[in-house]
Amino acid sequence: MSDNNPKGRDIYIIPQKSAYSGTVNIFMSAFFLLIALLIFLPILLVIIISFSSEESVTELGYSFFPKSFSFSAYRYLFNSGEYLLRSFFNSVLITLSGTLAGLLVMCPIAYAVSRKEFGFRRRILLFLMIPMMFSGGLVSSYMVNTQIFHLKNSYLALILPGLCSTWYIMILRNYFHISIPDSLIEAAELDGCDPFQTFRLIVLPISKPVIVTVSVFQVFSYWSSWYPSLLYLDSNHTELYPLQYVLVNMDRSIERLSRDAQYISGAGVYTPPAVTVRMVMVVIVILPVMILLPFFHKFLKNGMTIGAIKG
Amino acid sequence: MTETEKKSSISGAEITTVTSETVQVKSETGFSTYTGKRNRVFMLMSLPAMLWYIGFCYLPMFGIFFAFKRFTPKPGEFLLKNLFINSPWVGLENFNFLLRSSDMPGIIWNTLIYNFFFIILGIGIPVFLAIFLTEIHSVKFKGFIQTVMILPYFLSWVIVGYLVYAFLATNEGQVNHFLRMFGMEGIQWYQSPGYWRVILIITELWKSAGYAMIIYLCAITAIDRSLYEGAVLDGATFLQRVWYITLPHLRPTICTIFILRIGTILNSDFGLFYQVPLDSGSLQSVTQTLDVYVYKALMQQANFSFSAAASFLQSIVGFVLLMVTNRIIKAIDSDSSLF
After folding, report:
1. Do residues B239 and B229 touch, judged by C-beta distance below 8 A?
2. Band of pLDDT at residue B20, cut at 50, 70 and 90
3. Structural domain span for residue B46
4. Is the pLDDT of residue A190 over 60?
5. What are phi and psi of A273, to 5 degrees?
6. Of the four, A102, B52, B253, B339, which is 20 to 30 A from B87 by CA?
7. Number of domains chain B is built from
8. Which of B55, B84, B113 lies at the terminal end of a domain, its last residue?
9. Domain-embedded: residue B329
10. Contact A73/A275 with Cβ under 8 angstroms?
C-alpha cells in the first residue's frame, strides 16, 4: 500500500523521537538480526557443505567450519554430462513456459471480470470462486489427468495443473479494477478500440507492476514444484525430471551421474563425492531464488497486500 | 461497432439515447447490441481460462463419486463409464472401512494435533514478529530482515528436507556432531519418532512464519499513525499501544486467516510430512497425516475408493467447520467474519 510512496512511509510508520523508541529500536534490531541469522543458518550450512572437501566431511561431518574447502563437487557436477544439464533445462523450460502460458490465460479473464460493463462478470467470478471451496480431491484429478488427458510422462503434466489460480486472477483483477482509471478505458473505446484492443494496447502496458508480481509468484512456484513429478513421471522417463525431482530421487540420481561420468571419461570406476554432491544440487536450486528475491521482494509484498483486500 | 449499429437499426431497433459520447442501441429484446458485442469479446477473452477451469477443476469434481463406489475398472474403457457404469454403488461402506482401519485414529490425531499447533503458533508468532518489526526505524534494515525471513517460504519441501538432513543426518549431521563434541552419544534421528513432533513444528514455522509476518505487517502499515501519536502524547506505554491500537486493528486479518485455517484442519502439507522425514518407515507413527495417507492409498496401494473417501472427509469436515467458525465469529464481531 504505502510502498508506492516510500517517502511517505518514512514519515509515517516511524513514531519518531518518542521516548521509548531509541532503546526499543536497538533492542528490536538486535532481536531481528538474531532471527534472520537463525533463519539463514540452515541455508548457510548447506552452502558451506557444498564447498567442503570430501575428507573434511568424512572426518568432521557436515560442519560450519570445515577443515578444507574444495570445488571438487562442483567440478564433478559440471562435468557430469547430460543428466544434470538436462534436468536444469527441464526446470527452466517448465518455469518459463508455465509462467508465460499462465499469464496469457489469466490476464485476459482478470481484465474481463474487472470491467463493470461485462454482463457475465458476476457469474464468471462465481465460476472462478467455486473451485477455491470444492475440489474433487487427489484421486479424481489424478485419474482425469492420466486417463482423459493422457498427461502421464509429459512436460504438460508438470505445466498444466498449476497454470491458473483464482488467487492470482484476483490479484490481477483488483489491480485492473483499482489502478486503471475508467476514463482511460472509455477514451480508448471512443477511439474505436474493442475491449481486447483496449486491454492489449492500453491496459497491459500500464499494468507492468502487477504482471511482474504474478510472474514472480508463478516463477517461484514452478521452480519449486515437485509434487506433479512425483505423481506423473515414472522412473523410465528420467529425461523429463526437473531439478527438484532429481533431488527427490537423489540416491538413484547419484548412481546415474556416476554412470554418465564413467561413460564420458571412459575411465574405470570413479566414486562421486556423493555427500557433497547432494548439497551442491541443493545450492543450485536455492541460488536463483536467493538472487531473485531481493529484487522482487517489493513486488511480492504488493501482491500480498492487494490480495489481502477483501471483496 | 458501426456495422452492428446499422444492422440493428435496420432490424427495427430503437435508438434510445444519442449523445456525443455514447451510442446506445436497444434491440427488441431489450439487450443492447453494443453491449452484446462487447460481451462477446469479453467472453472470448475469458474462454481460455474457463476451459482450463473446466478441465482441471470442474471435471475432477465428479471424483466425489469415487468415495461411494467400489471402483472396478474394465481395462480399455473410458474413465467415466468405468466409474459410473462398471463400478457398483456401495453407499458409505468405504467410509466405514476407512474409519475402522486400525491406523486411522492415529492418522487423524496426527493431522489434528499438528494443525492445532500450526494454527496457534502460526498466527501468534508472526503477529508478534510483525508488531516488533514495526518498532525498528531503519527502512532499509527492515526490508533486509523481511527478505531474509520470506526466503524459506519460496523453497520447496524437497530443499527443506535436505536442509533438515544436514542437521540431523546420523553420521555427518551437524546436531550429532555437536552432541559428540560434548561427549554425548549421537542420536539416530530418522529412527526416533519421539523428537519429530517438535522437529516438524519448528520446520513448518521456519518456513512459513516470515511470509505470514508480512501479511500482518501490511495490515499494521495500514493503521492510521495519528492514533499512535495521540497515544504517545497521552502517555501510553508500548504494551498499551499494542493492546489497545495494534491488536484490535489486526483482528479482522487474524480472524480471516483463522477461519481459513480451520477450514483446512484435516489437510496437511504433504511435503512436510512425506519429504522432510524422508518417508522413513520408523517415523510413520508421528508423521503420517491424512494427506500422506491419501497419496499412499492412491499411488502405492492403488486403493482409489479409500483414497477418495479420505479426501472427501477432508473437504466436507473442513467446509462444515469453516461455515460454523465463520458463523461464530460473525456473531461475536461481524466485521471480522469471512463472509
Report:
1. no
2. very low
3. 2-84
4. yes
5. -70, 75
6. B52
7. 2
8. B84
9. yes
10. no
How close is the nearest chain B Cα to the Cα of A139, in Å? 6
Which residue's entry shows cell 437499426?
A: B9
Tell me what the mean pLDDT of segment B202-212 comes to: 94
In a domain, A22, yes or no: yes
Whether residues B103 and B79 share a domain: the answer is no
Dihedral pair phi/psi, residue B73, rounded to 5°: -75, 145
The mean pLDDT value of chain A amounts to 83
Whether A76 contacts A273, CB under 8 Å: yes
- Claim to verify: residue B80 and residue B126 sit in the same structural domain: no
The per-residue pLDDT for range B25-78, each reduced to its tens digit, is 444 444 444 677 888 999 999 999 999 999 999 999 888 888 888 888 888 788
Q: Which three cell numbers stand for residue A2?
A: 504505502
* Contact residues on chain A for B50, CB-CB shorter than 8 A: 109, 124, 127
Query: Over the stretch B220-267, which tens digit does the pLDDT of each residue have?
Result: 888 888 888 888 888 888 888 899 999 999 998 899 899 989 988 999
Nearest to B139 among A9, A134, A308 (CB): A9
Task: Report pLDDT digits (tens) over A99-129.
Answer: 999 999 999 999 999 998 888 999 999 999 9
List CB contacts of A189: < 8 A, sequence separation 6 or more.
Answer: A195, A198
Domain C-terminal end among B30, B57, B84: B84
User: Do the Cβ atoms of A72 and A53 come closer than 8 Å?
Assistant: yes
Q: Which domain holds residue A57?
A: 17-70
Query: Looking up cell 427495427, which residue turns up?
Result: B12
| Closest listed residue to residue B326, CA positions, set B253, B248, B249, B260 | B260
Q: Is residue A243 part of a domain?
A: no
Residue type, B36: G
Rounded to the nearest 10 degrees, how much is the dihedral formed by the CA atoms of B126, B131, B133, B137? Answer: 170
Q: Which of B261, B93, B157, B294 is nearest to A141 (CA)?
A: B294
Residue B337 CB coordination number (10 Å): 18
ipTM: 0.85
Quick check: B149 and A39 CB within 8 A?
Answer: yes
The verdict on residue B89 lying in a domain is no
Beta bridge partners of B69: B89
- The answer on pLDDT for A92 being more than 50 is yes
Give the residue among B14, B47, B43 at the shortest CA–CA distance from B31: B14
Per-residue pLDDT at A6 exceeds 50: no
d(CA B338, CA B319): 13
What is the model's pLDDT at position A21?
Answer: 63
Q: What is the pTM of this model?
A: 0.84
Spell out the residues 6+ positions from residue A38 whose beta carbon is closer than 8 angstroms to its own. Answer: none
Q: Does A307 touch chain B (CB under 8 A)?
A: no
Of A36, A194, A248, which is closest to B145 when you measure between CB atoms? A36
